[in-house]
Amino acid sequence: MSDKLYTKTVHELHQLMKTKKVSSVELVTAIYERIEQVDDKVKAYLTLTKAAALIEAQKVDKRIADAKEIGPLEGIPVAIKDNMCTEGVKTTCASKILANYIPPYNATAVTELEDDGAIILGKLNMDEFAMGSSCENSAFFPTHNPWNLKTVPGGSSGGSAAAVAADEAPFALGSDTGGSIRQPASFCGVVGMKPTYGRVSRYGLVAFASSLDQIGPLAKDVTDTAIIMNVICGYDPYDSTSIDKKVPDHTKALTGKLDEIKTVGVVKELLGKGISPEVKKSIEEAIKVYEKLGAKIKMISMPSFEYALSCYYLVATAEASSNLARYDGVKFGLRSADSPDLLSMYYNTRREGFGPEVKRRIMLGTYALSSGYYDAYYLKAQKIRTLIKRDFEAAFKEVDVLISPTTPTVAFNIGEKSDDPLSMYLSDIATIPINLAGIPAISIPCGLAKGLPIGLQIMGNVLEEEKIIKAAYAFEQKTKWHKERPKL
Ligand code: GLN
Question: What are the residue ranges spanned by the domains of the chain?
Fold first, then answer.
């Protein structure tokens, strides 16, 4: 029965377990075999927790044997981006500075999964401190895109997207500050969702830019995404920005119809300059699918998007410079040896511990916050952030959801942009405005070009995850893109 178990979705695996055709131990074993087969090439994982996973799987199997009903994630393996704290398991943020850090507690999202019986397989590679769009900023090694090993999987949750695409995990958690779930999901041909800011607790997520960071799922299809959202969303008293509102059953949105979604908006600015012809073509095809589903299509202009990238790289770096001040060699992780005094210990620890992109961001952020420049840069960026929010508010008065490409191009080659940070930053042009506004969005597969996946981004108003899932599922039912898999 373990034949190709690793290719199955969460909802398929749940059926197999419920009907006792497969045990959790069988499933976990099959996935680790798959990891052994392909991870030499893909390099999605930083840490594997096989012994603990098998013990947990045995416990679940006992529960399955006794109980009549099992939950949708019970006994299902999951992998976690390495910036979410896992009690007793290394959490490195793919940084030398945390290379040996073992947290004494779990992130709330991880606890939620474990409480629902999910089995943690291990921790996934990422760009150092989630800063990047290609997974090349990992201090350890780059992850490769399973569709073409010469290309990047995207980032910063590149390990999460690659693991799901390569069937090395049925689903994964990622984090998204400016696109880090959706952009790699797009590059790797999987589904990735960034929930409304505050919908999933950030407690135990190592902070990059606290006003933008959000945890979300990467999965093989929209159904799985809805199931995972039901588990990880919800209020958490440990996160003061967490939203205290009832979580709906997201699977109710899986109707295959657009129902109350009457008008689909297309972001004009994200179909013009800088978008590659093959991506544009796929989005135009997607628009036709929505027309066939009965939606009215409306072009929507978002004038503030022109400034979104500049705004993001001020707000995100400012917050990062403050958040990363805590890594001083005293409290967490690395401490540089042989420093003659305290100040040189601080300097040396940070010089040795942080990679070039992290240093670049700390310097940019410190500059933007320094007196004399604060008004000119940080404050201005905050004002632009408000304009972006208003553009979305105006748009959602006219349309129910908005669509755009997730990324301007398909996955680029490893090394292609590493010496050019600005061109790397441009790959998040379509995803960044969403984080600045705090709204939810999903990326789903909508095409292939040069053998590489293309992603469709669907955005909704604050707390309208159900509408997004409804629109995404209806699209998925009418197309076959989510069934395409890389040949490894
Ligand atoms: N690529 C963007 C950055 O480098 C977004 C990262 C993220 O979402 N964590 O900041």
Answer: 2-265+283-299+397-483
Task: Assess whether 186 carries a catalytic annotation.
Answer: no
Ligand 1 nearest-atom number relative to CA 316: 10
Angle between helices 465-478 and 277-292 (to 10 degrees): 100
The answer to whether 339 and 380 have CB atoms below 8 angstroms apart is: no
Res 144: pLDDT: 98
**Percent over 90 (pLDDT), the chain:** 93
Q: What is the residue-averaged pLDDT of the chain?
A: 96
The atom of ligand 1 lying closest to the CA of 357 is 4
pLDDT (tens digit, 9 = 90+) per residue, 202-240? 999 999 999 999 999 999 999 999 999 999 999 999 999
Which pair of tokens denotes residue 226?
Answer: 């809805």
Residue from 8, 43, 81, 417 carrying the catalytic annotation: 81
Q: Rg of the Cα trace of the chain?
A: 21
Q: Which amino acid is at 90?
A: K
Whole-number Cα distances in Å, 16 to 56, 291, 488? 18, 36, 25
Report whether 215 contacts 175 (CB < 8 A): yes
pLDDT band for position 3 (50/70/90)? low
Residue 177 in contact with ligand 1 by CB distance below 6 A:
yes
Cα–Cα dist 152/176, whole Å: 17
145 beta partners: 148
User: What CA–CA distances, in Å, run from 17 to 11, 59, 264, 349?
Assistant: 10, 14, 38, 49
Question: Cβ(431) to ligand 1 under 6 A?
Answer: no
CA of 463 relative to ligand 1 center, distance in Å = 22
Report pLDDT digits (tens) over 37-72.
999 999 999 999 999 999 999 999 998 888 778 999
Question: Is the CB of residue 435 less than 8 Å from the CB of residue 199?
Answer: no
In this structure, CATH architecture of domain 2-265+283-299+397-483: Alpha-Beta Complex (3.90)
Residues 6+ apart with CB under 8 A from 144: 41, 42, 43, 150, 151, 152, 153, 162, 414
